[in-house]
Fold each of these.
Amino acid sequence: MLRKISIGMAEFKVVHNPCVLEVLGLGSCIVICLYNKKNKIAATSHAMLPDSKNSAPGINPLRFVDKTVDAMVSGMNALGCKNKDIKAKICGGAEIFHNVPKISDIGRQNIEAARKKLGSEGIEIVAEDVGGNEGRSIWFDTVTGEVVISRIHKPTITI
Amino acid sequence: MKFKKLNRFELDALKEISSVGAGHASTALSVMTSKRIEVTFPWMKVCPLENVTSVIGKPEREITNIYLHIDGTYIDKEFEICSLILAFPIKSAVLLAKLLQGEEPGAEELTEMDRSTLQEIGNILAGSYLSAMAEYLNLKLIESVPSIASDMLDSVMDPILAKHASEVEDAIVFNTRFIVGGQEITGHFVVLFYSHMRLILANVKYLKEIEKCLGR
């Protein structure tokens, strides 16, 4: 049984030792799992909004997709990973509330921001479980790179 | 807006608004259902946005969330004032809906009728809170239609928290207790203010001080 580490909103972790990175109750937020099998280094982030550009001063930058990816990538680079060797899996970005202005669209924007940011970093997305209108919990095995996803009242899936 | 640095005046103002709001809500719900219903806020907690869900419960607990958005007019200008969230564990949500409809509780899932009953409770609670706030701050407030969703706690909270994440550092969580016919139902009421609200509060403080100086 691998050690489990929970990643809350606006948190990220870069790990070297084998473990399971866990995010419970994911809604419109987006979880980006990065791993490099060769060096056995992995990272996961849990961002709330796409872009830090319009944020007020003093706001935690890790709430935003762009900054969390920067933080994870520089952490992995520092441990000797090159961007071209890093694979990504992304999950989340659900539309939990329907037809609510400024809320329903956040999930979709997060998905697009994650794809764009990872693209610009030259990191390939190898699997996705995004969108829909249900919450998810995810468990990312940093050894195999597998991500197990569960929803309420539904069987789990693995990507 | 750093709520950690809320001064005594602001904290007192928010507490006064909520206790008046709870009183209004008790009356309104009792009149609507012709039952004795009491709404209280036993405790209040100020915490960073990211920690709101951990104050309420376990991340995967199934929750029903009622959400409203509030705009206001102050000195002829329109502002986004706050978001209000009323969250119940799904069993409590079903129980509350059934009690208010005068039906036997027992079911595990919400019917269409339960959902609209809960939206109405959200409306009344928010409306009561808002009328207290409007009185205190001398504001005109307009509430949106309540939206409702059920899923894991963190999943139903994060879209709303995310909406505020680029400008609000902290949130206020009220433990909320409904007492209906001797039965107690506990949920949480979350208030997320925009930074304008802080300025309006500061303004009210000056006005009150001026009134005091003038001996009114």
Amino acid sequence: MKICVLMKQVPDNDSAIILSNDSSSIKLNDITWCTNESDTYALEEALLMKEAHGGEVVACSFGRESSQQVIKDALAKGADRGLYISEEESDGFDILSTAKIFTQALKDENFDLIFSGLQSNDSGNAQLGLLLAEMLNMSHAALVMGTEVLNDTRIKVKQELEGGWFQWTELDLPASITIQSGLNKPRYASLRGIMMMKKKPIDIFDSSQIDSTGSKNKIFLDKMYIPQKVKETTFIEGTPDEIASKLGDLMINDIKVF
Amino acid sequence: MKINKNSNNSQQIQHQAIDHAKLEGRGGAFLVTPVDKGKVFSRELFCEEHAMFREAVVDFSKNQIQPIKDELNHPNEVLTRSLIQQMGELGFLSTDFPESVGGLATDKITSIIVSESLMEGQNASIIVTFADHTGIGTLPIIWYGNEAQKQKYLPKLASGEWIGSFALTEPGAGSDALAGTTKATLNKEGTHYLLNGSKIFVTNGGWAEVCVTFAWVDGNKFTAFILDKECTGWVLGPEEHKLGIKGSSTCTFFYEDCKVPIENVIGKVGLGSAVAFNVLYVGRYKLGATTMGGAKKIITLAHEYATERKQFDRPIREFGMIRRKLAKMMVRAWEADTILYMTAGSLDSVLSNYDKESAEYYSIVQKTIEDHGIEASICKIIGSEAASDNIDDCLQIFGGNGFIEDYPIATIYRDDRINRIFEGTNEINRLIIGGTLLKKSILEDLPVREAISNRKNHWIPERKFSDHNELNTLARIIEFSRSLLLYTLNEGIISEGQDLKNNEWVLEPLANMVISLSIMDAGFKRSNNLTDDADKKHTFMNIFSLVVHDRFEKMVSHSKIILSHLDSKDNVSERIDYLEKKCSEIIIRYSPIESMEYLVKKLDHHKKYFLDD
């Protein structure tokens, strides 16, 4: 089984987000970077599959030079090889253009499976896996919560539906599958794994040399802003029974926690 | 090595050449190496692997330890074992283990990184279990064990399947470790030693499968033994009720004809004191690493509370007295960081020249670490005192809430107290610094005599130390401080002779001077490792200026204590007069408040100790 895991470097949740003066981007100086959360689950699923069925796991990332760190982290955890698509201005690509770049970089690899996290924590498109399936002529399943390899040509996946429902689906390989967080327990990098990482290859693609005909942006970023925090306090008055009744009503109909 | 105190005529004193390149990697080299002659390791020189090791341990600590940190404050063998085994799987336990038994045999810098980063888990008990296991609990076998002992014990200690411990202290033998009375008698078949006696305060005692312990053979040969669960007569006493680190195990051992096979003697009969004392050096610098991690971590808690807590309609972090505390906390943590990585780097600069799998490697490790005895003790003192001072300041920032158990700082305060006591009390470590300094000077192990001579009339050598004006000014203060230490040391030797090594009244301030000089010296040399990032350089200058001026004042004050004592004893006043004259020649113009405010503003932005990034 030859598996590619798409991994994105995103700002850590604890990073202070500061906008540029024209509100078109975030300042990168003080950002602490990490691997996109759901991508770490995708990697773990690929590693488990390799351990059970053999094969190769390739970690692939697209972005500025620092993005190679997410590949190195994946290699330290057990991926066999890295594939880095260099592009210092990757934030300026819309999702369709990004998918076209990936397609060019991946098309000759003939992967059986492409795993990606459900969506990225920064831009949150949740479309890359689906677009790649179309462009590379692969089957597709999104929001996957479990996998089971049936044979060399088919895979069964458990998909999350709305309202707490799940659905098992069978797909032909090759397939591009987007992974939901929580389906496994991502491993930690071991110190030995980190020491081995140096011996594993990372192939580098320069995105400017990839034929990206037609990868012109169709979506343009207008403005970024940090949501204002709004605190709204409602006092419920009355007898204890009245308060309980009004509170229940609020929770069911307004806040909709039930 | 006395310098004639009456030979004040500079023309009579010839400059003595010191080969500074030869001193690289030598313990105590900082005493005689000017700021522009040597280099140090610091975290700015971390390689990619080091950075990834750190991330890996931080990731584990934040996700596996921190969420259960309160549970770990109560003794829980199952939970502790599970964490230790996970650490074993990830290699955290085996950085110092040879590859032949499944270890990683990394550099010493990595050991420090692992120890420091585990503090991200915010639990002291698990750190104590880890540190005892990986340090004094296993190092005697790694360093002094024969191949059979290594193969029998180390793989399971590396994986965490077995927990290690170290039993040296006895009711009548604490700091004076050789005052113990436990005896080992060879049985008549010559197959086993029978141990009789007791050991107290054994960390990991209740959980350990393996213990390195010590006893007198024939009444005069102090010997190290490995105990395991097949040794009958190894009787476990009850758990101690401790002030802090309550989630770790601390027990008494009773040896009642405890039957230890002769194969379990470590090294050879009579080698026990070398085993005990050499591994304690490592225990010391590793304790420096965990406490340094704690000193940094507590800043987040202090700043968070100072931001949330409002008085007079303002967050208390806006008040100058709170800001001064926060600034000092950062300075202390930075000092500990500087000294820890300087020491580890110096050890590695020597050890990297040897084949780790060669037969003599571990004897070279021992010699190198013993040579760095002064640095190991400085690491322990600076780390533990940075942690305790920072934790005390944090509790003060918490005000009345700090005194209430519902808030986290009370537990931290209790947990921390042991750090100034175990692995050699800080008093014993100051004694080691002073004693080793005298030994290295008198035996001319370091060219201290030459340095004293060279500095006699030139407290600040006439040259430019840095192209950076501000750094050059700081360099002059540091070189003045170096001369001050050399002068004070020389006067102490002249006045007290050999008796100086027993005069703790003098050795303590002398050790404090050595500590201060080591920090200033390493700090300056760290400046050579900075990148071109202007913001980082500016931050460095602010923190380093604070360090140098504060340490300089402390050095003068400690020197005065010593020199006035010597004058008083000799019924003269010439030394103090000379010091006053010398101090009047160096003019200090510096306002620390601006530097402190700069650092705290940065802290306000980062909300944590930010000088690691």
